Amino acid sequence: MSLVSYLGKQILGVLACYKAGGTVIHICGVYPQHDNRLRLFFPRGHSLQPGELTTLHLDNRSGVDEFDADIRVYRASYKGVVEASDGDWAILAPRECKLMHGMRVVEDITADGYRFPDDPRPLQAVPPSPLQQLPAIAGRDHPNKVGILVTQAPEQPHTTVLAFLSSSDDDIFLITFPETFKSQQLKRNPRCHFVMDERASYTFERAIEWNYTIIEGDAHRIANGSALFEDVRQAFIDKNPWELPFFIREDLEMYHIQRRRLLCPGAV
Fold first, then answer.
1. What is the pTM of this model?
2. pLDDT for 96-155, tens place per residue?
3. Helix, strand, coil in percent for the chain, rounding step 5
4. Which end of the chain is more exposed for a tag (fewer CB within 10 A), N or C?
5. With the CA atoms of 175, 181, 186 and 191 taken in that order, what torsion angle do they form, in degrees rounded to the nearest 10?
6. What 3-state class would DSSP assign to 179?
7. CA distance 52 to 242
8. Closest by alpha carbon to 74, among 96, 103, 45, 50?
9. Would you give the DSSP letter of residue 51?
């Protein structure tokens, strides 16, 4: 089956690519094709050129009221190459894409000759968070609000969807585990981007860019056992009590992303 069979004919996507020594984030309309290419529409235009490598976060949460620990939606980090560019439109061809539902892979797409690049960067300790106490959590947070973490992998960025907490000053709090790819990425380079999906419902909407907040920041580690760690953990439990077993694992890692700046789509 093709991606369109799982995701539908039109969804919203978060695209990331490297330009001018930085990471550029776009919010775009995505039209999956039956051959697993993607037609993309950028409401404010783009500067993508044929041959450029991009990563596109895809998911279809239509009809899903809340994310639970099993993440029972179709989602993917689509690593592609720009095949064509025409005005506000572009076409991506897949290099590698694992479409997930829950915790299983339902489609595994790999272009002929593609091999995931080696990453020689050493793992390093992530700097400790400068926060001493939990700031006021943003009132706009609600149970089905999710975000996309964009980290700096070799050749092209990596995207992953996850639950989070945010403060009124745009501090972002994340929870993960040492074996995850995002944990390995943050330990190689703590500079990252976080895209908050602000949609009240998960249907396709024409006001594409208004539905997202894009933050560039630096990841910091919150020490397990600290007062801040326990306060953040309790805030996660209060927000998502059905995920209690997830939050009390002993090997849990907690990250604080401190905002550098808010970005407009397409800004370097």
1. 0.91
2. 999 988 778 999 999 999 999 999 999 999 999 999 999 988 765 555 567 899 999 999
3. 15, 45, 45
4. N
5. -110
6. coil
7. 41
8. 103
9. T
